[in-house]
Amino acid sequence: MHTRLTQTEVATARSAGLLYFVIIACGISAEVMLRGPLIDLMDASGTAEEILASLGSFRLSIAFDLVMALADAGLAILLFVLFRPVAPTLALAAMVFRLVQSVIIGSNLMNLQAAVLLLTGAQETAALASGQVDAMTLLFLNLHGHGYDLGLVFFGINSLMTGALIWRADFIQKAFGVGVSLAGVVYLIGSALRFFAPELSASFAPAYGLTAIAEAAFCLWLLSAGKFAPNRG
User: Fold this and answer.
1) Over 43-68, what HEC string results?
2) Any idea where the domains of the chain sit in the sequence?
3) 197: which DSSP letter?
4) What is the pLDDT of residues 139-150, one digit of tens each?
């Protein structure tokens, strides 16, 4: 029974925890602190003015999201290495779904860049009528939101698989598996609402607090995994 991590596995877990921390920090910084306050999907002209007034912050949010997507790809590989002894096929499937999410999140950043090109005049807009630039900018911002939730569909499935891997593993408490699995359910429901019942999305938003708690707890376990491993020279 594999109840203790080897020193190599401890190093893998800690590296995964560091990447997870980067993902959480960059994700919150980009969406909540830098970009979110600038965007009002009900006010195209107001949003355009806010972005132009804080263009550096908006561009920084794109950079943070790019770092997050890259870190997520690395995390997918490290978690595969860590949980491969538990269930090789399931660990591989979980890695694939998380990598797909990383690709979607990364490529979806082009919608944000398109908004920047329109607002800064880097894209020719002379043929557009007054107000159309702002409207198109808002459309790209809205597409980014939908693209993000599309990525979370794959991440939700990954979370269910990761939760199952944690549940099967003997070197981590099963409560973490329950939390990660519940987070996956929240992501899947939230994404489904965004696409098929957007009027309910706002009322469901508080449920994402569960995902924050579950992911932060798992991240902390990974960072402190050394205390669960034997002290080997």
Assistant:
1) CHHHHHHHHHHCHHHHHHHHHHHHHH
2) 7-228
3) -
4) 999 999 999 999
